[in-house]
Amino acid sequence: MFIMIGIIALLIYVGLVYYIGWRGYRWLRPEKSSRRFKILYTMVVAIAATSFIMGRISGITFLSKIGAYWMAIFYLFLLLVPVAHISVIVLRLTRLPRTGTQKWAGIVILVLTISLLIYGTYNAYNPIVRTYSIHMGKNTPSLDSLTIAMAADTHFGLLSGKDHAKRLVKEINGMKPDIILLPGDLIDDDIQPFLDQGIDEILSKLHAPFGVYATLGNHDRHNGTMQELIDTIERSGINVLYDEAVTIEDQLTLIGRKDRRDPDRSELNQIMKGVDLSKPVILLDHQPYDLDIAQKAGIDLMLSGHTHHGQVFPANLITDSIYENSWGYFKKGSMHSVVTEGFGFWGPPIRIGTRSEIVRIQVDFE
Question: What would the 3-class secondary structure string for 278-313 be?
Answer without folding.
Answer: CCCEEEECCCCCCHHHHHHHCCCEEEECCCHHHCEC
